Amino acid sequence: xxxxxxxxxxxxxxxxxxxxxxxxxxxxxxxxxxxxxxxxxxxxxxxxxxxxxxxxxxxxxxxxxxxxxxxxxxxxxxxxxxxxxxxxxxxxxxxxxxxxxxxxxxxxxxxxxxxxxxxxxxxxxxxxxxxxxxxxxxxxxxxxxxxxxxxxxxxxxxxxxxxxxxxxxxxxxxxxxxxxxxxxxxxxxxxxxxxxxxxxxxxxxxxxxxxxxxxxxxxxxxxxxxxxxxxxxxxxxxxxxxxx
Length: 244
What we know:
The protein is α/β, with parallel strands linked by helices. Helices cover about 35% and strands about 25% of the residues.
């Protein structure tokens, strides 16, 4: 299986401050990576760097053969990045339907997952029935969970090669967490979309991921299969520094 994403010796941060130092990660096509670590270890900086929202000091990022580190922020969606940041970044003054149709890109053979139908607003409504019920509501009228669903839907209708989810379960009610986990599992397992997920609920995310990497002080301190880490709770506790 060919590698979709290759990150080699990556150093990046904000201004002159270096947060990531020598990070290397490889993700195969159709696989999901759980990116774990304590707060402040560089997880969000890594995601922001893939999306183009930090200053890169060294190293390279290659997405499906394209030198992503040379691609400006405003062109990374076209290069195949679907980014759901912690802030969600939905248009609160637009309706749910307008949020989706404003950014939708047609699925193209060179970007869509082989054998999977292109993502359209209609398919997002099928994935998240709550959004279908609120398609005429403004973004500002949605609950936190509904806003997160919309943020995921906005990333999907870009028909990306790689989906970046930065703490998608943060601050949500348990019933919404389970709904989102089922949706993410469908997107990755059934649809075969490659994804990187940053999350503070490691066991929930490891259960739907293929690979796992743990960051500490801006470097990768553990890499392996998600199942192996899930099966070693003592190691997981040691790496994260908190009993889970």
